[in-house]
């Protein structure tokens, strides 16, 4: 319930950013006296996700929306829609399909194998690790990639962001994207754009 944003994307990421930003601003953290408590940040993120999922389920139930967890076996369109699941058949005039999404893995030689071996991780997989390496190369300068870069830099990791695009964040106003990238560079994040 809640989709990618709630379970693996935006909400967990914002929780980690909050933790890393708090550490980054702490005087003890700046002096190197305290290590970043990754497991506490993971727990904080999971608690936020669970709390929001319960809230979402409560609101749906309150509004008399029934939640069913069933496996879809087939969809047929006729005068309306007929949806066959492992527990029955449903009919409706209109159908909203909200199946979620999967992470996009670029076609880079050896990347899929590295993900399977655990020597590379996806954005959501990063926070399932028990410890974060000292150096990180992030492929992609989209919002998630830049948020992860900021998080890692806040906890004193060496970060390089690589993208095939020459003009990252092109969906934003040029002044805003230039300002944001300048801020990230000042924090010590390195970028390689136009990579093949």
Q: What is this structure, in a nutshell?
A:
This protein has seven helices and six strands, in the order H-H-H-H-E-E-E-H-E-H-E-H-E. The protein is α/β, with parallel strands linked by helices. Helix 2 crosses helix 4 and helix 2 packs parallel to helix 6.
Note the overall shape: globular
Sheet having the most strands: 3 strands, antiparallel
Secondary-structure class: alpha/beta
Give the terminus-to-terminus CA distance: 38 Å
* % residues in beta strands: 15-25%
Determine the number of helices (DSSP H or I, runs of at least 4 residues).
Answer: 7
Q: How many E-type strands?
A: 6
Oligomer: single chain
Computed CA radius of gyration, to the nearest angstrom: 21 Å
* SSE sequence, one letter per element: HHHHEEEHEHEHE
Q: Overall pLDDT, averaged?
A: 84
Catalogue the unreliable spans: none
Placed side by side, the strands forming the largest sheet appear as: 1-2-3
Proportion in helices? 40-55%
């Amino acid at each position: 319930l809640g989709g990618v944003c709630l379970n693996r994307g935006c909400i967990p990421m914002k929780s980690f950013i909050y933790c890393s930003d708090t550490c980054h601003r702490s005087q003890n953290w700046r002096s190197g006296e305290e290590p970043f408590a990754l497991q506490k940040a993971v727990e904080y993120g999971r608690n936020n996700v669970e709390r929001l999922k319960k809230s979402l389920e409560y609101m749906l139930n309150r509004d008399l929306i029934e939640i069913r967890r069933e496996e879809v076996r087939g969809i047929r369109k006729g005068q309306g829609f007929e949806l066959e699941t492992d527990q029955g058949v449903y009919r409706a005039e209109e159908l909203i399909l909200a199946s979620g999404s999967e992470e996009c893995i670029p076609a880079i030689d050896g990347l899929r194998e590295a993900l399977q071996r655990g020597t590379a991780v996806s954005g959501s997989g990063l926070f399932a690790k028990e410890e974060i390496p000292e150096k990180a190369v992030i492929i992609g300068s989209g919002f998630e990639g830049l948020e992860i870069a900021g998080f890692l830099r806040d906890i004193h990791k060496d970060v390089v962001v690589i993208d095939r695009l020459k003009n990252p964040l092109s969906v934003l106003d040029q002044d805003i994207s230039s300002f944001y990238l300048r801020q990230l560079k000042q924090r010590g994040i390195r970028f390689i754009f136009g990579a093949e």
